[in-house]
Amino acid sequence: MNDYFKLTDTVYDITEKYPEAKELLISHGFEQLKNDLMRKTMGKTISLETALKSRKINPELFGQKLAERIEQGRYAAGTGLSEMKKESGAEIRVEGVLPCPIRIPLLERLEGWLKENSELAARTDYDLKAASMGLDTAKERVLAAGGDAGKLSDLYLSAGFDLFFDRQLMGRYREAGVFEDISGLARLNPDFENERINLKDPLGQYTIIGVVPCVFMVNTAVLGDRPFPSGWEDLLSPEFENSISLPVRDLDMFNALTLHIRRFYGKDGVEKLGRNLLSGMHPAQMVKSGRQQQAPAVSITPYFFTQMLDAQSPLVPVWPKEGAIISPIFLLTKGSAREKVKPFVDFLFSKGVGELMALNGKFPSTNPLVDNGLRPDQHFLWLGWDYIHENDIGALIRETEHDFFAAAGREQL
């Protein structure tokens, strides 16, 4: 599975060798590992796989997440990126998570830019994690702010909806007019501002620098005599019951996917998708699953992972006819910090960063100077700002998750 550990290794051996494992296990409910004596005694008697199964945690998905965290830590140590984290009580604070496929090249570019702007770097603290590590820390800080906008970071960067729109989190500050789009762009890339879609926030609060498109892959070796699906509505058919894989642990993508299904196909559509769930595989596992006997007939995945297919794979990528569902990469800046953070916003909206996203990560950019390399038929499905502003997205996410997992007949993950 990876070059660091095996799922059959003991919890003690893995946590002894990799501190990241201890942290990740504790975050998944293994509180007893905080007691080092218990970790050394009980941990020697149980394998990682058995421990995870005891809490109904998918061992392979957890293993992938842990391997990514170890990899990132080693890369950071070798390059001096130090996980791209600096805590010194500086004047400016930048915070967020970055999509894993482009995190390292983007951090390298950011590190170079900070070196060129050393005075600004000295005045700035930052905490930029991989998306796989989640937003828990950022959420804790927002909750701890207790309604005081002065305690928030000056700039946030992340894909997904829950942190930025949940009224228990950023939503309360949005309604108070704390945030402002300071990109200065009159128009976005035509891929995202046309007769079908407009990602420019009409209230001038939120900025979207790019998107993570969600498409699907059809396994022709498993499909059988079922009609070849060409769009989202096809995947809600009873013919695909217990046949679809989607990344339920990639919360940004999962929430974006289920929110869009609810927006366009209603609660009934969410329940149909839940009934059709076969597994909650990581996208990289989906690509490898093509020749497995129990493989899903359809795997819903970020577009990036379709680029991993080889010519012999039975998996056929499909850009849905209704459009690829998108998880926007939001840039959220405090209006009161406009002058301080404008250089960072300009950097993130630069043509170079936009091209890195579009070309290296297959995450199309909203920068109007970037050619995203999309075909005319590769358009997008978008919730719409009216829908976002008229609903409590955080509450809607929780309700939609409940409906999905209830229909799937399993506990929420």
From TrEMBL:
InterPro entries: DUF1858 (IPR015077), ScdA-like_N_sf (IPR038062). GO terms for molecular function: thiamine binding; thiamine pyrophosphate binding. The keyword Signal applies. The keyword Signal applies. Coiled coil: none annotated. One of its GO terms (cellular component) is outer membrane-bounded periplasmic space. Keywords: Signal. GO terms for biological process: thiamine transport. Residues 7-62 form the DUF1858 domain. Pfam families: DUF1858, SBP_bac_6. This is ABC transporter substrate-binding protein. The lineage of its organism: Bacteria, Bacillati, Bacillota, Clostridia, Eubacteriales.
